[in-house]
Every structure is written in C-alpha cells, then in structure tokens.
C-alpha cells in the first residue's frame, strides 16, 4: 500500500528566533531552515513501514515555495521514493494547506497519510486534523506507535493523562509525536541518489482548491523579559526567600 | 454574540481547564453556552451549569461521544456551532484533536492556543516555542479557537445556575473506534492546574531518584513534572513532560531540579510566577530565567529543602 507523508520547511529548531525591528514578523532572512522535526519523525515512520513490508511506496509532499525542494530532497535521501511540491508563495494558512493536500490525496489515493503533530514555527497543530475532515477519514493525533492489524490502523496516542489506543479504517490520517521513533541520518550515498529521484512540481492554483485568507498577522513582539534573578548561597536562604520575599510557600 | 465552549471532561468530572476557557469567553463578551458531549456525563453537565457566567448548558449524551473520538464529536460541534460567533475549547489533547476538524467542517481556520483576547476578532498567541508573541485578526464567520489555560485566570466553579438542555443529535462516523487507554495514576495535583510544580531533568540520574522529588512535592502539595531528557531516558512517563511538546504550566512556583533549561523546556514553564533552579552547573541556561538560583548538588539540596519547608 501507499503511504503519503506531508512535510514542512521550517526554521531549524536550534536557531534562536528574533523579532524584526519593525515588529511585522520574525526575521527569517538568512536564517537556517530545516525539515520540521515532527515531519522527520513522520518520514522515518513511513520508511520503517516500508522496511516492514507494510508499505510499497512512500511519497512525500510539501506545500510552499520553491525552496522547500531542499527539504523534499532530504526526505528522499532518508528513503522516500518520490516527492511532490505544491508550489505557492502565499502565506501558509492551515486550512489552505489542508485543501491543497486533500486534492493531492484524491489523486494519489494513499492508505495512510502521515503528518508531524505540529510545525515548530507557527505551532498551529491543525493541518493533519483538517485534512482528515476534508477527506472524511479517521485520525490519530500524537501517535507514539503505529501498527496495521486486520485491515485497520491501530495507533497508540499520547494524551494528557497517559496513553490511548484507537483503531482506524483505511485510509487514515496519523500525526506523529516525538516518541514515535528516532529518525535516522541520511548517508552521503543516499543524498547523492536522492538527487536522481523524481520530484514533481505542481502549481498550487492548478489543483482547484477553494483557498481564501482567514486571518491577518497584525504584528509580532518578543515575549516579556523576566527580571534578573539572584543566586542564593544555601537551601536555608532559598527557603527564607520563598517564604518571606516571594511568599509562594 | 453567543459563544460555545466545549467542556473538557472524562464523563465523570469537569476538568479545571474548562474554567479558564470560560474566562476567555467572558473576555470576548456575550452569552456563554457550554457543550458537554459524552456518555453518562450528567454530573459533568450539572457542574458546568454551576460555572459562574454560563447561560446555558447543552448536554449531548450518546455512546458515540464516550471517548471523545474527533470523527464523531467534531460533526456535532460543527452542526451546533453554526449558530455561534465563537467556538472555544481548552488547548488540551482533546481540544487540539477535535477543534481543527470542526474548523475545517465550517470552512474556517482555527486560531491555536490564544493567551489573550484583544477584541472579539483579535487575539494574541505564542509562536516559535514562545519566543515571539503574534497578534492575529480573524475574518472567519465563526471563530474557532483553542485557549491556553495558563493565559487566563479561571472563573468561579460555583455561582451560576444555567439551564441544562439535552441535545439529541447523534453522529457516529463509524470510521474509528476506541481500543483502550492507560492513564497514569497519581494522587498529586494535576500538573497543569497545580500551584507548585517540582520538575526533574537528566540530573536526577535515574527513575528511582525521583522519590526525592515526590517527597518534596508531597510536603509542598505540588505536582511533579519532568524535562524531555528525563522522559526519554525512561525515568518517568511522558505525561509528566513539561515543554513545547509536553504540557504548558504556569504555577505560582516552579522548581527545576537538574534541568539545564533548553528552549523547548522553557517554552512550557517560563510564565511561572517564581522560578527556582537547582543545578550543579552554574553555566546552565535555566539560571537566566530563574528568580532564585542555587548552585548545588541536588542530592544534598533536595532532602534539605524537604526538611526545611
């Protein structure tokens, strides 16, 4: 069966972001970009399903500018078979991205669609769930284990109080949490091979999705700075400060 | 304007995060209705009716809603939600699971994890692991919003007397089923609602050493959290993780023990009122956000702290 993995080009998780001087957004010019870490986990899971013989083909798809080809090549180097880029310069609003992806899913007809649980830039945590709604399939968010039993996807999910297991008819949407797996590194030969794998570019407006603007970003500010703290010399002094100065115990 | 708040519950008890969500609804202004979708959740509906400021409670009681499966609950919320100006849910694992489906069904975007209400259509929310705060204005016909509980002081759980109205609608999509769940058992306060949180990191060295933190927490009436490093090392279960990918907490007092203070961890706790860091490494980044820092061996400091508090 076919597995489709949606990936996003996002800021490198180790970069400390800065707000632009005019407060219009965060500064992304000249900042290192990478495959969103949760998407890496989704790609890894798809490749493991292929290695287990459960998946026959792994297709990666991204919505974004031409620069996202770099992240699709990374996914190909990790083991995906081919890549699709839905190219658009527009701001990536979750519902619009979900609509483009659902059109791609209509064409590709995968039995499993994997997402990261959220992108670390906008932290929306929406696209996987929205795609599931748009294509009318079941969803398992925050997956920590994925299995295939009797024609269903059986997924363990991380929830607030512990873990939950759900079973989903095919096709299904699964969004991947941190503990699902440990993504592998791309080897140099695989990076070279990935350059020859197919990467198809689809102009977003040819998909026939009814996209629109839903929200406007009015501005961005840095978070409030905490005032400098003090170092205490002993546990007794700490307890005294907490009781008599901060008044929190 | 009428606002629909989705109650967070386990069919038995109304979760405290619902009170913070109602507080956000009150800031937007207008009548507040609460939807309790579940099975055998009569006590939850009664508790919701007592929340201060709630005008009406809608109770949808059906086996299809027993485990909050999003495939079944989202169509219910979308159907009811068409008549509302705003639909709000707490940014819990349930809220985040269900609400984007509702938004897609209503053909609108969702606004995730708001921390403040500027006006009926403008909200603030953290992005980039809390390293920037965005102000966004929504032009959606129905505003679908998840609320970060720590951004809003809860409304009173008592004082209201709303009418409870049964909702007959039953949606069973039949494409998903609940298999089982394993919930961590704990007598300590719930992590996201606790006034004091004691958290351990890699510096705890092993799971057994967390007993020192449990002893301190019990003395303080605190909840116990952990960094991702401690969870990944298998010291404690993952529902204890505080951070960008775990729980967001903002207690009165947060005591970080043996935690270096990576940005992903800080994203989950830096809005705490008072932060204490206990760490051997005086260069650890956690000291930059701590109100009180103690450079010490935690295995000496924690038992002493437990004796003195």
Explain this structure.
The complex is a heterodimer of chains A (249) and B (309). Chain A has 249 residues and is of the alpha/beta class. Chain A has helices spanning 37-51, 69-78, 94-108, 127-135, 188-194, 235-246, and strands at 2-6, 9-11, 33-35, 57-64, 82-87, 112-116, 138-149, 152-159, 162-168, 172-176, 199-203, 215-221, 230-232. In chain A, the strands form two sheets. A nine-stranded mixed β-sheet of chain A has the order 9-8-7-10-6-1-4-5-11, sandwiched between helices. In chain A, α2 (69-78) crosses α5. The longest helix of chain A is centred in the N-terminal third of the chain and has 15 residues, at 37-51. Chain A is globular. Chain B has helices at 17-28, 42-49, 70-81, 93-105, 210-220, 228-232, 263-266, 298-308; strands at 2-6, 31-38, 56-61, 86-90, 110-114, 116-119, 122-127, 132-138, 143-147, 163-166, 176-183, 196-200, 223-226, 253-257, 274-279, 292-295. In chain B, β2, α2 (42-49) and β3 (56-61) form a beta-alpha-beta unit. With 309 residues, chain B is an alpha/beta fold. In chain B, the strands form three sheets. Chain B has a seven-stranded parallel β-sheet, sandwiched between helices. In chain B, strands 13-12-14-15-16 form a five-stranded parallel β-sheet. In chain B, α3 (70-81) packs across α4 (93-105) and α5 (210-220) runs parallel beside α8 (298-308). Chain B contains eight helices and 16 strands. At the A-B interface, α3, α4, β7, β8 and β9 of A face α3, α4, β5, β7 and β8 of B. β13 (230-232) of chain A pairs parallel with β16 (292-295) of chain B, so a sheet runs across the interface.
């Amino acid at each position: 069966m076919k597995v489709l993995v949606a990936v996003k080009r996002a800021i490198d998780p180790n970069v400390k972001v800065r707000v632009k001087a005019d407060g219009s957004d965060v500064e992304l010019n000249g900042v290192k970009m990478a495959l969103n870490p949760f998407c890496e986990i989704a790609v890894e899971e798809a490749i493991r399903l292929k290695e287990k013989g459960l998946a026959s083909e792994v297709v990666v798809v991204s919505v974004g500018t031409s620069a996202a080809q770099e992240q699709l090549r990374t996914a190909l180097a990790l083991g995906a078979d081919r890549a699709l880029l839905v190219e658009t310069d527009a701001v990536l609003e979750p519902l619009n991205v979900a609509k483009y992806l659902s059109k791609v899913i209509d064409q590709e007809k995968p039995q499993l669609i994997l997402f990261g649980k959220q992108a670390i830039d906008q932290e929306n945590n929406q696209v996987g769930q929205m795609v599931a709604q748009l294509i009318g399939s079941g969803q398992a968010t925050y997956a920590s284990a994925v299995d295939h039993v009797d024609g269903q996807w059986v997924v363990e999910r991380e929830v607030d109080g512990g873990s939950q297991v759900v079973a989903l008819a095919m096709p299904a949407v699964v969004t991947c949490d941190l503990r699902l797996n440990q993504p592998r590194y791309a080897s140099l030969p695989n990076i070279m091979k990935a350059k020859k794998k197919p990467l198809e570019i689809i102009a977003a407006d040819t998909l026939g999705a009814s996209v629109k603007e839903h929200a406007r970003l009015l501005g961005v500010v840095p978070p409030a700075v905490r005032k400098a703290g003090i170092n205490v010399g002993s546990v007794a002094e700490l307890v005294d400060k907490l009781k008599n100065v901060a008044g929190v115990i | 304007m009428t606002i629909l708040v989705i109650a967070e519950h386990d069919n038995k008890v109304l979760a405290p995060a619902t009170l913070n969500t109602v507080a956000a609804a009150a800031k937007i202004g207008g009548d507040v209705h609460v939807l309790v979708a579940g099975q055998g959740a009569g006590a939850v509906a009664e508790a919701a009716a007592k929340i201060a400021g709630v005008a009406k409670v809608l109770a949808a009681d059906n086996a299809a809603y027993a485990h909050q499966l999003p495939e079944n609950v989202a169509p219910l919320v979308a159907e009811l939600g068409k008549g509302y100006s705003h639909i709000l849910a707490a940014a819990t694992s349930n809220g985040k699971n269900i609400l984007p489906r509702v938004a897609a069904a209503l053909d609108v975007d969702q606004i995730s994890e708001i921390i403040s209400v500027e006006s009926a259509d403008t909200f603030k929310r953290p992005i980039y692991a809390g390293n920037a705060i965005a102000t966004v204005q929504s032009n959606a016909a129905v505003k679908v919003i998840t609320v970060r509980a720590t951004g809003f002081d809860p409304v009173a759980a008592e004082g209201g007397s709303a009418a409870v109205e049964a909702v007959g609608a039953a949606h069973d999509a039949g494409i998903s089923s609940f298999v089982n769940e394993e919930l961590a058992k704990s007598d300590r306060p719930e992590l996201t609602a606790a006034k004091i949180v004691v958290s351990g990191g890699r510096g705890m060295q092993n799971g057994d050493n967390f007993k020192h933190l449990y002893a301190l927490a019990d003395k303080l009436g605190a909840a116990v959290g952990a960094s991702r490093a401690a969870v990944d090392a298998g010291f404690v279960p993952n529902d204890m993780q505080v951070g960008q990918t775990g729980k967001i907490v903002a207690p009165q007092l947060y005591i970080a023990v043996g935690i270096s203070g990576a940005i992903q961890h800080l994203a989950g706790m830096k809005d705490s009122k008072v932060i204490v860091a206990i760490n051997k490494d005086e260069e650890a980044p956690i000291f930059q956000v701590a109100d009180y820092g103690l450079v010490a061996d935690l295995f000496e400091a924690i038992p002493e702290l437990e004796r003195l508090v």
